[in-house]
Amino acid sequence: MPHFWADVFRGNEQLFAYDHRVSDRKFFVFCRNMFAFALFGHILFIPIFYLLGNPLIFTNNIIAVFLDMVCLWANYKKWHGRLLIWACEIALHAFFCVIVFGWAQGYSYYLLALVPIVFYSRCRFSARLIVSGSLFLATLFLYHYSRTHLPITETRYSMTLFVYVCNLLANFVGLSYASFYYRRYSDRLEHELLKLAQTDVLTGIHNRRSFEHQATNALEHHLLEKEACALFIVDVDHFKRINDSFGHPVGDQALQRVTEACRRSLRADDLFGRIGGEEFAVFLSHTDSLEAMRIAERVRQNIELCRIELSDKTRLFLTVSIGVTVLHATNHTLSQMMSSADQALYQAKNSGRNRVALLNE
């Protein structure tokens, strides 16, 4: 049992490392697309700002194009805080545009739209709160300023309406993308978490919880339809000795070899899972005792053919003991079937190991 928990902890370390790499990749893609979208938008606004006639904002937009390119480069380098820096650049650009052209052109929408994007960043939560609060205060200030001051540069109504629609569209597209991206990401994570909750990390097959859940459902179906079914438990012989003599990496390799041999030996609809450190269980649908013994013997023989090449060129030979049980009147729950298979397994071990035993009842 201690070896089982050691396997679980090593598997969790690998899982967390994998999740971290996947999360970093997703964040990299999100930032890259947002920076590219902003760069494209600022480039499109170059002629618009030129026509609006304010050289300060035109120059500011050119600087924004350069900063977007810097953010793309920082994203490639995976600098922390790159999304926050980009958000500040967009906010300052929008701030100056409202001061110069007024509230009516819709630049203030960028300040509000940036709030959820800021919370996607990897910065400290306190930093995200400070930036979001600053965006809120800036929006209030700009609203009050626009009510008491005329725009520095007046524009025609048609141009104001055109820029307003462009800004509204840009914000809708940006927020829609961010929402869609993270909704799809969360759905994918939910699917992966469900899969991980049902999978043994080391071997890639069902873990005990998943195996028992699915085997229970299958058994209920067979009881309802009064169909034959069987279950057997596979135990790797002298597994503790393998771990103690050669180390856990060799023990892990042995479990993986046993898993591969079992997969080759079982039928497509057989349910296969790891239920303990070196124990595996197989639920066989539509199977009587003779067929179950035949399949279990095939598993045993294929595992007996497994070889592990060690670093000193010696070979490690693997064998297993298998206990088989079938459904009958006094054995009609999964726990009872597993208990019967355990008793058969002990018979196989007591008879010398590397053999298959059927519980005699």
UniProtKB/TrEMBL annotation:
Q: Which UniProt keywords apply?
A: Membrane, Transmembrane, Transmembrane helix
Q: Which Pfam families match?
A: GGDEF
Provide the transmembrane region boundaries: 27-50, 56-76, 83-105, 125-145, 157-182
Entry keyword Transferase: no
Cited PROSITE patterns: GGDEF (PS50887)
Q: Which residues form the GGDEF domain?
A: 227-361
User: Which NCBIfam families does this entry report, sorted A to Z?
Assistant: GGDEF (TIGR00254)
The protein in question is named Diguanylate cyclase (GGDEF)-like protein
Lineage here is: Bacteria, Bacillati, Bacillota, Bacilli, Bacillales
